[in-house]
Each structure stands twice: as C-alpha cells, then as structure tokens.
Task: structure prediction
Amino acid sequence: MIPRIQKRGKRTIGLLHYLYEPGKYEEHTDPHLVASWDNNAPDPGRDPSATLQQLQRLLDQPVENIDAAERPKKHVWHLSVRNAVEDRILTDEEWGDIARRMVAAAGIDDPEEGAGCRWAAVRHADDHIHIVATLVREDGYKPDLDCDAIRVQAEARLLEAELGLRRLNKGDGTAAKRPTSAERHKTERQGRERTPREELRETVRRAVAGAESEAEFFDRLAAAGVLIQKRVAPSGDLLGYKVALPDDRNKAGEPVFYPGSRLAPDLSLPRIRERWSGTEARHDREEPSDHRAAPPTSAPAAARRRATTAAWQAVIIIDRGDDAQVAALIGAAGEVLDALAKTSAVHTRKELRDAAFAFERASRSRVKAERGHDRALRQAARDLVYSGPTLGRGEDGATTAMLIDMVFFLVSAAAHWHAKKEHAQQAAAALQAAEHLRAAYQAASPVPLGALYQRGRRLSQPLRQRQVAYLRHAVPELAEQILAEPGWYALAATLSDVEDAGHDPAALLAEATRRRELDTAESVSDVLVWRLRRMADLPADASAMPERKAPTTTATRGACPVPFHVAAGHLGGQGIGKMQ
Result:
C-alpha cells in the first residue's frame, strides 16, 4: 500500500473535477464517495441531485468562516492511497475504513476531539482512493501536519498486515522521489523504457561516478547530451543545477528540468561536493584553465583488476569498520556499479545497469558518511570510466567476470550491514542488486572459466594430485566439497599457474579462504579461482598463459577432453554466492 501526499492546492473544485470525471490518463470508473467527515455529505457520483459545487462549498466552509488574512495560501490537502497490482480488490467499506485511519494518522481529522478538518474519500478505480481535505478545522484552528507523510506511511504498514496486503519495507526518508502518475503515463505514450526523472537520475549518477570536481562533473553531463541550467549567486558562486532531456518537453514546448535534489537526495550539488571532500582535487573555481584535461587512461582489464582489489578491501572494512566508514564505502560502491554498467559489454550491460539502478536505493541511509575512507573505491570508479568500454573478450572479459564476482560480495556485505541496522528498504535493494549481478556473472563467466576448466582437465595426473594435496593441506574442511564441484578443474589449473608464478599454492590458498567466509558460495572453487588469480597477479584469461606439457603416458593417451559447451554449461554463474 502506497500513500502519497500530493502538492497542496488552492482550488477544491478543480481537484473534485479530476476525481469525478472520466480521467485523462487512466479510466475513472464509477467515481463515488467511500467515506467523508459527514455521513450525509453529498456524493455527485451516486446521487443525481448532488453536484460538485455542493460538495466543494461544504468542504470549503470552515475556510470561508475565518478572516481572509488568516486563511492558508494553499488550503487543499490531497492524499492518494494505492494498492499493489497483486493485492486483492478491497470493498468500499474497507477503503472507507482505510480513509478514516489515514486522515486520523495524518492529523487531518481527530475523531476524539470532534474538531478535525472536512474531508472526502473518492474511489474511482479498484486499486486506489483519493482523499481531499481543506486545511481549516471546524473550530477555526489549522491542523498540525508536521510529519504527516511519515505518519501515513506508518499507518499503511499496519493496514497491510491487518488486511493481508503486500508488505512494503519501512522507509527512512532517504529514498529518491518516485515518478508521478503524469510522468509514468507520458513515458508510456512516448514508448520510453524509463521516465525522464529515472533516466536523468541514472545519467547524473554516472556523471558523478569517480568525478573529482564540478568542472569534470558538468563536462560529463554535457557529454551525455542532457541540458543543464546552473543557479548562480550574485557573487558568482554556483548554488545548484537542473537537468533535462532534450526531447522531454511540456505543453509549451519547453524542456522539463529537474533539480538534482529532486532526482535523489544525494544528487544535490552540496551533497555531491561532499564526495570530493575526501580527495585532494579542487573545485573548478580553484583550478587552472586546463582543468578539462582527462586523467591518464589504462586498459579496461587493468582498471577492472584495480577495482577488484578496491572492492575486496572495502568488503573487509564493511565487515569490521564503524558505521560512518561503512556508509561512505556503500555510497562509493554505487559509483563503481554505475561506472561498471556504463563501460560493460553488450552481453552484461542490461543486468549490470539494472543492478546499479537497484543498488541506488541501498547507497543512502540516515548514517552520515565519513568521506575519505571511500577514496579507493571512488578512484576505482574513475579508472573504469576513463579506461573506456570493453568488448567483453580476452583479458577484458575475464577481468569483468572477476570484478562482478567481487562486487557481488561487496553488495552482499552492504545488504548484511543494512539488515543489521534495520534499514529494510536498503537491504532489500542490495539483495535485488545482487540478483542482477548473479545474472551478469552468468553471462560473463562461462568463457574464461571454460578455458580454465579445459586446462585443468588436461593437467597430468601427477600435477593434479599435487593440487589435491595443496587443497587438502590448506583447507581440509572444504576439500571434499571443492573436489566434488565442476569448478575444481579450473581451480586446479589456477593452482598450477600460481605455482609456476613462484608462489606457494597452499599458503596462498589458505590466505584466500581466510579473507572471508565461503559458506554462502554456490561454487567455492569458482570464488577461489578469482581470488587466487587476483592475489597472484595472474592473467584472468587463461588462454594468455602457456600450458604445462603433460607427459604422454598410458593413462593420458587417448583421453578425450570435455567439449567446451559442456564445460561452460557446468560453470556459468557458479562462482557467485547464494543470498541468505
């Protein structure tokens, strides 16, 4: 159940016309009163002799009874209450009870004192009602509506439980503003995938990812093709900004601009500047004229490796750090996801974009972030942006799978932290992002892991036995589980590569398993493959490494390696953990 308080208005009659007429964007069927301040209030929907003007005059009467100077400038209060699509259809009596509880919770009506405001609840569809009220009480006083939105949300949570409706998570006031009904209908008419508000929020977040100055931020916005308006003080200081899509116009043909703060609470200019407070970069007003020069770029694979390391370090801090540090890291994790989605290959792009879109809600909470601790993650996001897009093949594709695997654990750690803090909406958003990351990993991992699988199958029997010995020595409690997994052959090949690179396979393997629990992994071997290849600085793409020549023996002569498509089918998506 979603209660939404709309903007206050000046004309009661105008709102009543909207509620009782057929509707401009959606069909209003059988509009009628389900409850009101007075059981005898006229209902223009069901009583042929009743008119909208009669209902309006009665609603406005307490306003007209006080001096004009004391009347509220906007005296019309409007609340819509909508159920989920999968909810059962409620009766008029149930909706009437909901309306009475909502106005009492908001402070519009006070049944105990009998001196509330006048209000009416109109139903014109199966799944929602609208409540209109006028903001002067019967005794001439004005209602106390402080925190009315919070109070109606709390009442909605109680009603969901009592009526057996879909249970929504309790919010904390840090969510981005939802698109309005008008925005959604306009989007449907134009055939867009997302509303302009949502598209702009994604574009601004991508422009913020890893940015270090106002100039860089606005340059990225301009490069993304959005229209920008800046709000400048008489002193010349920049106070804020608005953005618009070039093809999103109002009836007058003018672009529809959205301030950053209306896109999301953390996208206002002051909040964006907080991200730069942990870096040594200066704002554009302090920089020389050549500030638009881009930082040095690196190959996508190198950027993804560095991002994997930064994500791993962040996971450790989220597990053990204080709240202010963790809040900063979770916010920066959102920047990494935005940058990864922006630069991803086609076969992973949609799921990574959806992961970033979902995790946006998890990146904010009431815990104030202590900037500076997120420097490594923000730099990782910056590196991803400036390394450019990847085609998803070779080392670029393999390191993408490696990074997605690690970011999954980062997002999972964020979900666990939010759940521990009882941040229900954020925890749910992080879990949703993790599912999209799982799907992205399934698209990214089969080729690189398939190559490793084939290498492991072709290892000589003595070599494979040596890797088994390393495994039993390093992690005896996990050895049998790992040996039974299809991914064991990829891990065996990796252990062989680790040894060839001059490392102690058993010691490195023990360190990789100590770093963080593996109980939730669907395939422990896949997770360890990526950890070992990162820790030993091995190429993620096994085809780039020379293979050990296995001696020709009776045991190996005539052996038939598993076809690649079978190996890929066994391996795709196994490395990512299962959420609990």
The mean pLDDT is 86. The beta strands are 2-5, 32-36, 76-82, 119-123, 128-134, 227-232, 238-244, 258-259.
